[in-house]
Design brief:
Elements lengths: L1 H6 L3 H16 L3 E7 L5 E9 L5 E10 L5 H8 L3 E3 L10 H7 L3 E9 L2 E10 L7 H44 L5 H16 L3 E8 L3 E8 L11 E2 L4 H9 L3 E3 L2 H4 L13 E9 L2 E10 L7 H32 L9 H18 L3 E9 L1 H8 L1 H18 L5 E6 L2 E7 L3 H20 L9 E8 L6 H18 L4 E3 L2 H12 L4 H13 L3 H16 L3 E9 L2 E9 L12 E3 L2 H9 L3 E3 L2 H8 L14 E9 L2 E10 L6 H19 L5 H16 L1 H20 L4 H12 L10 H4 L7 H7 L2 H10 L8 H5 L21 H15 L11 H11 L6 H12 L2 H9 L1
Parallel strand pairs: 16-17
Antiparallel strand pairs: 1-2, 1-6, 2-3, 4-5, 5-6, 7-8, 7-12, 8-9, 10-11, 11-12, 13-15, 13-16, 14-15, 18-19, 18-23, 19-20, 21-22, 22-23
Length: 862
């Protein structure tokens, strides 16, 4: 026993050794050790039995209550052994104990150290016996040997615990001062308390005496536990008692003396203690720890718990002040909604959640129609009131966990977690109805308050900026289509928007593009030179075009760099990437990132070996699409730290023009190509497009009057619209010259029909009208250009367009001459009939003009 007392590393070894020695010395049936948690409350009894092989084993412990007289209680009071001969008839021995263990006689011996009885050792015999005085003295001696070992263990444990406690408090103080986020403060608090006190569970309830508390942070529980968010009533559990009293509370009989909260984890608790948390002058919560076994709570345990709680309370006060300041910075001052910066952060957070949970995420960006004229007419006070009421209505319309923000001006964002595209469309209809109802509440404002909405669904690898930008692009298209409408972001929507934006794109870029097209002999050449064209026109450092090599890679078919660029090449000849995955990631639009590594991750491209150094700059990937399918990808490098969105949009526009116009597409590709080319003409010369539209009206009417088949009339229509397309490649100083052209300039200008034909031949759907454009300036007498065709060798459509073009040009004012009158122009047509113009065409044109006097007046007035 002495050796065990000196060498034991934990109390169980001492108690088992003591039991073994008692079995050997006295031949008893069992030994019980009742360890005291708190002498005024309960103890924990452990049963030791001798197995057939002579070893000692333990049975499940039991609780020893002190609410009635007992032998253990007597020994605690006297500090002396108690010898009970007739246990079954004794008033101080529990009948439950004698029945359960078949006890006839018992000996109680105190085990004391540190000036107090710390345990009581019970020797149980199933046969009646009275332990002799020398036997009692021997048991007492052995108990004292065990007590000595336990005292040494307790001292070592206490010193280690004190060191650990001090370390935990110091660690908590440092950690709690590192953050101003209250959730992190509370998580740190629970973690350090568990370490300092060796608790099984720790938790924080925030609340007060009136409302109770809410479980907000814990250590020792899984995320699936029903504890999280549990609301304890005032007085419920030790924490509820603390919230009522504001004082520490300890329980060593948690299941028996406490109103246990209805949480699964609490059913295993035996000992628990809780202390109050005060900050900003008020009781704000309770910090609790729990043990699954009965434990003696020392005064220093409560001191440690309160010390860490006080540290956390100071940190919570700072965090609360910081949160208030941050909330003010994140809140729109007029509407009370999140502001522009806050919704950016919230969007990033929701993307992180959607990525982890694989749930949907949809963004709505709404713009109030007619807000500016209403604001101008009725004043800013009315405008501000409209914005506030719309904000209140939207906040009430959507779910509490949806993100509603004022994006700026009269634009609002609604972020919809766990929502797919179809759900986003339904939500957009609700948003529009909500705005309309709010507008009606203001009475007659002279025009309705409605909303246009852009809808974008998140998908890998979109960032918060990408998602909001997709919604913004969809909103822009919705506004272009008309007010009170909605558009879902998609590749088709981008193509439509690109077509609408072409006319407003920088004319120099369009001029350069079509000049480049005119110089190409084959459609494939246009694709091959796209990288050099885009790099030069947009001032980029590097551009590479990749197409599919196999299922696992892309091959570079063209690549260019800025002359003298000192940076290492960014884009390698081969890229390892699952092509189908790349298609999915580019299907929703282009991707821009601030580093090449980030772009690779976004595209799913395998990183190069460690020796490869990425160049500085920002990067983008633009899909080269045809008929809605990604054919390849353009990779772009810009010298700045953020890739300009304007450059991305212009690249998309040029790529879309190249693919649609030069390669054609199914399902109405001809009409799309005509519209795209017409927009390009308008970007170069608004007069040319307006003139072409007038010629279209006359040419279609003449073709019908001459009885041309419907398909030929359709070709005449498109040929008339595009008869001047070759002028996009004519230098500005010739195209816009204020006076007559000299001979050299006329030679250049006379090339535009040939250039136009070459442009149209690049698009299979437009090839049938290429001859009409080439021969649009041939004369009936063979003196025209470019081929000198005569009579009916000239295509009928060309003859019709030529006459209608000439008439419209004569009655239209130009910088270098005044317009002719209608009658003067008719006279010129008649004089040129049979020489310059087809006589049948002139006759039909005059008949058409005779039926359209009002149209003539409008044309002449222009």
């Amino acid at each position: 026993m002495s050796f065990a007392a000196v060498d034991a590393a934990e109390p169980g070894v001492i108690f088992r050794t003591l039991a073994a020695e008692l079995f050997g010395a006295f031949g008893i049936d069992s030994v019980h050790v009742c360890q005291l948690a708190d002498r005024d409350t309960v103890g924990r009894g452990t049963v030791y039995e001798q197995r057939p092989d002579g070893t000692v084993g333990e049975r499940d412990p039991y609780v020893v209550p002190f609410d009635r007289p007992s032998g253990v209680h007597r020994v605690l009071a006297t500090g002396a052994p108690l010898n009970v001969f007739d246990a079954r008839n004794s008033e101080i021995v529990s009948g439950e104990l004698t029945e359960r263990f078949n006890v006839a006689s018992m000996l109680y011996v105190p085990l004391s150290y540190e000036r107090a009885v710390r345990a009581v050792v019970l020797l149980l015999s199933s046969s009646s016996r009275r332990f002799a005085d020398e036997e009692v003295d021997l048991v007492h001696t052995m108990a004292n040997q065990a007590a000595g070992g336990l005292a040494a263990l307790a001292l070592r444990t206490r010193l280690a615990a004190q060191a650990e406690t001090q370390a935990a408090i110091a660690r908590a103080a440092g950690t709690l001062n590192e953050t101003l986020e209250r959730p992190e403060v509370l998580d740190t608090l629970c973690r350090e308390v568990n370490v300092a006190l060796g608790a099984d569970l720790s938790g924080v309830y925030l609340g007060d005496a009136e409302s109770g508390g809410v479980a907000v942070a814990a250590q020792g529980l899984t995320g699936e536990s029903d504890w999280w968010g549990y609301r304890i009533a005032p007085g419920e559990g030790v924490a509820g008692q603390v919230l009522v009293s504001g004082e520490p509370v300890v329980s060593n009989d948690y299941q028996g003396e406490v109103d246990v909260p209805g949480v699964n984890a609490m059913r295993s608790v035996r000992t628990a203690m809780s202390v109050p948390m005060y900050w900003n002058g008020a009781l704000r919560g309770a910090l609790s720890v729990a043990f699954f076994s009965v434990r003696r709570v020392e005064a220093e345990d409560l001191t440690t718990l309160q010390a860490i709680a006080n540290l956390a309370a100071v940190a919570c006060g700072k965090a609360e002040a910081f949160e208030a300041a941050r909330a003010a910075a994140r809140t729109d001052s007029l509407t009370g909604l999140m502001n522009h910066g806050a919704i950016q952060v919230r969007t990033a957070e929701e993307i992180w959640r959607a990525r982890r949970s694989e749930a949907g995420l949809t963004c709505l960006l709404a713009d109030l129609d007619n807000f500016k004229p209403i604001n101008d007419r009725h004043g800013h006070l009315v405008g501000d009131e409209i914005l506030k009421r719309v904000a209140t209505a939207l906040d009430a319309e959507f779910r509490p966990y949806d993100g509603v923000a004022r994006y700026g001006g009269d634009e609002f964002v609604v972020l919809l977690p766990d929502t797919d595209e179809a759900g986003g469309v339904r939500a957009a209809h609700r948003l529009r109805a909500c705005v309309a109802r709010t507008g009606l509440a203001f009475g007659d404002l002279g025009m309705p308050v409605t909303a246009s909405v852009g809808i974008a669904q998140w998908a890998e690898p979109l960032t918060a900026g990408d998602l909001l930008d997709r919604a913004d692009r969809a909103l822009l298209l919705a506004k272009r289509r008309g007010k009170d409408s909605l558009v879902v972001a998609s590749s088709r929507a981008e193509l439509e928007l690109a077509g609408l934006e072409t006319g407003s794109a920088p004319s120099q870029l369009m001029n350069s593009f079509w000049s480049m097209v005119a110089r190409c002999d084959q459609p494939s050449e246009v694709i091959d030179v796209l990288p050099s064209f885009i790099r030069r026109e947009l001032g980029l450092q590097e551009v590479a075009l990749y197409e599919r090599a196999d299922m696992a890679g892309l091959t570079r078919i063209a690549g260019v760099r800025a002359p003298g660029d000192p940076a290492p090449a960014a884009f390698r000849p081969m890229l390892v990437v699952p092509f189908e995955e790349l298609l999915e990631r580019l299907r929703s639009g282009s991707i821009a990132r601030s580093s090449l590594a980030e772009l690779r991750r976004a595209l799913g491209i395998e990183a190069p070996d460690a020796t490869y150094a990425d160049p500085q700059g920002s990067f983008a990937a633009v899909g080269v699409a045809r008929a809605g399918e990604v054919r390849g990808v353009l990779l772009l490098r810009h010298s700045g730290t953020e890739f300009p969105r304007t450059s991305v949009r212009l690249t998309e526009m040029v790529v879309g023009q190249a693919m649609t116009v030069l390669l054609g597409q199914s399902e109405g590709g001809s009409r799309n190509a005509v519209a795209a080319l017409a927009a390009a003409i308008d970007a170069r010369d608004n007069y040319t497009l307006a003139h072409s539209r007038d010629v279209v009206d006359l040419a279609c009417a003449v073709a019908e009057r001459l009885g041309l088949p419907r398909s030929d009339t359709a070709n005449v229509r498109d040929g008339a619209m595009l008869h001047d397309v070759g002028k996009v490649a004519i230098p500005n100083d010739i195209l816009y010259k204020a006076g007559p052209l000299d001979d050299g300039e006329w030679e250049v200008m006379r090339q535009h029909p040939v250039i136009g034909e070459r442009i149209l031949l690049r698009t299979p759907e437009l090839a049938p009208i290429a001859p009409l454009v080439r021969h649009e300036h041939e004369r009936w007498d063979g003196l025209g250009y470019p081929d000198g065709l005569a009579g009916r060798d000239i295509p009928a459509g060309s003859r019709i367009i030529f006459a209608c073009d000439a008439y419209n040009a004569m009655i239209t004012e130009r910088p270098y001459r005044e317009p002719m009158s209608h009658d003067e122009a008719l006279g010129e047509l008649v004089r040129g009939s049979g020489t310059q113009f087809d006589p049948d065409v002139v006759t039909a044109l005059i008949e058409v003009l005779a039926l359209r006097p009002r149209a003539l007046e409008k044309v002449a007035a222009r």
